[in-house]
Amino acid sequence: MFEISLPYIIVAYLAVILAVLFGVWVTGDWSRKRREKQDRKFRLVCNICGMPYEDRTRDPIPPCPNCDALNERIGLRDL
Ligand SMILES: [Zn+2]
Q1: What does the alpha-carbon distance between residue 75 and residue 28 come to, in Å, rounded to a whole number?
Q2: Separation of 58 CA from ligand 1 center, angstroms?
Q3: Which residue would you say has higher pLDDT here, 42 or 78?
Q4: What would the mean pLDDT of 13-25 be, rounded to a whole number?
Q5: What DSSP string runs through 43-64?
Q6: Who contacts 46 (Cβ-Cβ below 8 Å, separation ≥6)?
Q7: How far apart are the CA of 53 and the centre of ligand 1, in A?
Q8: Which of 4, 14, 50, 58 is 20 to 30 A removed from 20 (C-alpha atoms)?
Q9: What is the Å distance from ligand 1's center to 70 Cα?
């Protein structure tokens, strides 16, 4: 049999934990960005009254719930 030293076991254990934590972080960040991008597709800001609102219909020119002005769907950018 081969021998494994205690420091080697500790380093391997820490490397595995760090790899798992990195994977969880990357997956969570990717998921959050994807969800935010999906949500931004349905957000609009009224050109007349400036009210931000959400419209999940497929209407290309959804009306503003505040002033009934028709607003074109333009993607919002990141700040
Ligand atoms: Zn409006």
Answers
A1: 24
A2: 19
A3: 42
A4: 98
A5: EEE-TTT--EEE--S--SSPBP
A6: 52, 53, 64, 66, 67, 69, 71
A7: 9
A8: 4
A9: 8
Q: 12 φ, ψ to 5°?
A: -65, -40
CA gap 71, 45 in Å, rounded: 8
Would you call 70 helix, strand, or coil by DSSP? strand
| CA 38 – ligand 1 centroid, Å | 23
- CA 36 – ligand 1 centroid, Å: 23
User: Token match 């931000």: residue?
Assistant: 52
> How large is the average pLDDT for residues 47-63?
91
Token pair of 68, please?
A: 């009934």
Enter the tokens of residue 38. 């999906």
- Structure-block tokens of residue 31: 């998921």
